Write the structure tokens for this entry.
Amino acid sequence: MTGRSRDIVVPGPGQESVWDYPRPPAVSPDDRLVTVILDSEEIARSSGTIRILETSHPPTFYIPPGDVRVERLEASPHTSFCEFKGQAIYFNLRAGDRHIEAAAWCYPDPSPGYGSIAGFFAFYPNKVDRCTVDGRIVVPQPGEFYGGWITPDVVGPFKGEPGTMAW
């Protein structure tokens, strides 16, 4: 953390610092109510999510497929590879007249240690109208690549902000 330690926000009561998250990332079940909204339509609603917690990143919420309107998703040709979780596949999202490219992703066959997120969906909060955690509106993780969900109970600084790509 050399060069960053002076910028790290000390968490207050009820908060957690992304700098206390581990690497490789931790898997953490979460029972708070999570929603994903596009075009006034609830695309996902769950109290049985899994958070992935990785050093310098706000959590990413993975939602069970039974809590997602999967009929609104269509396969995308986009893929990516995570050194920890493995190969991800992406989905476009349709609601109303809107079609959002690569708005969600999942790991159909994740790497060992991440099997609990197999088939669960994660959504980019910057590509939908609103994501919430227990009614609190999520702020998207900075940058176009990352899909973390920033809520008032998480403090940074966060990877994705200007000058953080080498972290």
User: Anything to note?
Assistant: The CA atoms of residues 11 and 134 lie 20 Å apart. The mean pLDDT is 94. The chain has one domain: 5-154. The longest strand covers residues 73-82.
